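Protocol step 4 of 5: obtain the predicted structure for the target chain.
Materials: sequence only (see below). No template structures provided, no constraints applied. The aim of this step is simply to have a reference model before the mutagenesis design in step 5. Sequence pasted as it appears in the construct record:
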Amino acid sequence: MPTAAGLRARGFSADGWWVQPLRYWHLLSLDAPTIAAVWLLTFYYGEGARQHVREAIALFLAVWLLYVADRLLDARGASGSLKARHHFHARHARKFVCVWVCVAPVAAVLLACLAAPVRSAWLWLSVPLLGYAVLVHKAGSRAVPKEWIVAAMFALATILPAAVGAQQPGRLWAEAALFAGICLLNGIAIAQWEHAEARGLPVWNALQFRAVCLGVGLVAVLAAPWLSRVPALACGLSAMLLCALGLVSEKLEAVTLRALVDAALLTPLLLVALLR
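Step 4 output (structure tokens):
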């Protein structure tokens, strides 16, 4: 049985009831799927987002399956670099596997029911994604620039359904590029705050990271008049929230900080609520 000190070292200490749902949102691998589904609907905002809930659910389930599989595979090793999410998946591996086996057929059925162009786009994207997964688990995470690839793949997966039938694809791809930049900043923040070394990534000090976040946020806000308002402003707000987290990163427990870094990408929910 882990000691209280051991749990605190892994980021599990309970210093406030209000953070527990946020922590478990991350530990249960629900953070990335939520972000993917929210942004898929965001790229449809103003064009009947409610008509595309099925795609959002399918993407949510697919991303959850991928992240759980990845963390279970990572947890199999006895590496000292494992984080709270890996320890959590290792301790509850059987439960995760049981749920994974139940969710996979549901995701497959949903995927089969989607429009053919969307289904085909995602299936084609799964080919390089599978190659990346094999490479990262065979060659090791240090040999692969994970954050760059994940940012590009994540942005592509969320934008593809909207881009397939878009009347203005150029605008959508510009928004996707902004979102990919935010995903990359998210990955860089996690890598630099969780690891002493961030191989293959820009090595910025705290001030430089905040400056880059503010710069990306400013670009997104200035681009808003030429792009869809919600996606562009959401990217700008997310960049500023990542900048703010950089100010307090050393004061937060690892698992809480990790959850907040991902929660910073849920800004479309706030903007939609404010703009109604």
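Step 4 remarks: The longest helix spans residues 169-194. Confidence is low (pLDDT under 50) at residues 1-14.
Proceed to step 5.
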